[in-house]
Amino acid sequence: KGKCESPLHIKTFRVFARVGLQNLMLWVRETDVVNAECMHVAYKLTTVVGDREEGDMLFPVPPLVMDEDGEQTYLLMPLSDMQAIKGRCGQASDPRPANVWLKSVFSALVEALRSKHGDEVTQFYNIADESIAEAFEERYLPSKAMTQLEMLKEKGLIPA
């Protein structure tokens, strides 16, 4: 893509929570590309260090990659990586599969964001309720970190 020549209106939101042994932060950035009449949403779930400083990116698969317009490119996360996050939070004994557990953590953080910021983050809520939620579904879990297109081909859901 070329250099963004449209004015951008950027809003950033953060919500924090303690999950087992780990302090976590859900970070959301909504970028309104004014002349293009579109909005891009970027998000990440990270650990927290010190006094609310961002630590390691946990979800989606790091690193966070955004173009000049603020559109996020991300890779789907395999179950083994979700299991590692669950263990890092000290929740390995939770009987739920790692994808179900991580989805519940992510959903709780989204609800906390809704509670704190209301309708200010509407575009993110739409994405969280639809496409992000799919990233936790067993049928969409890839064997390794990969794009959605690669995963669909790997699982035979679309022609290779």
Key attributes of the depicted protein:
160 residues, alpha+beta, four-stranded antiparallel sheet, 6 strands
Q: In brief, what are we looking at here?
A:
This protein is of the alpha+beta class and 160 residues long. It has helices spanning 79-88, 98-117, 122-134, 148-154; strands at residues 8-19, 22-33, 38-49, 53-59, 65-66, 72-73.
Please render the helix and strand layout as text:
Layout: E1 8-19, E2 22-33, E3 38-49, E4 53-59, E5 65-66, E6 72-73, H1 79-88, H2 98-117, H3 122-134, H4 148-154
Antiparallel strand pairs: 1-2, 2-3, 3-4, 5-6
Helix pairs in contact: 1-2
Question: What can you see in these coordinates?
Answer:
There is one protein chain. The protein starts with 7 loop residues before the first strand and ends in a 6-residue tail after the last helix. α1 crosses α2. A four-stranded antiparallel β-sheet has the order 1-2-3-4, with helices on one face. It is built from four helices and six strands, in the order ββββββαααα. A hairpin with a 4-residue loop joins β2 and β3. With 160 residues, the chain is α+β, with helices and mostly antiparallel strands.
Percentage of residues in helical conformation: 25-40%
What profile does the largest beta sheet have? 4 strands, antiparallel
- The side-by-side strand order for the widest beta sheet comes to 1-2-3-4
Rough outline: globular
Q: Strand-and-helix sequence, N→C?
A: EEEEEEHHHH
How much of the residues is beta strand, in percent? 25-35%
Radius of gyration: 16 Å
> Span from first to last CA?
26 Å
Weakly predicted, low-confidence segments? none
Number of distinct helices: 4
Query: What class, by secondary structure content?
Result: alpha+beta
- Annotation, overall tally of beta strands: 6
Task: Let me know the average pLDDT.
Answer: 87
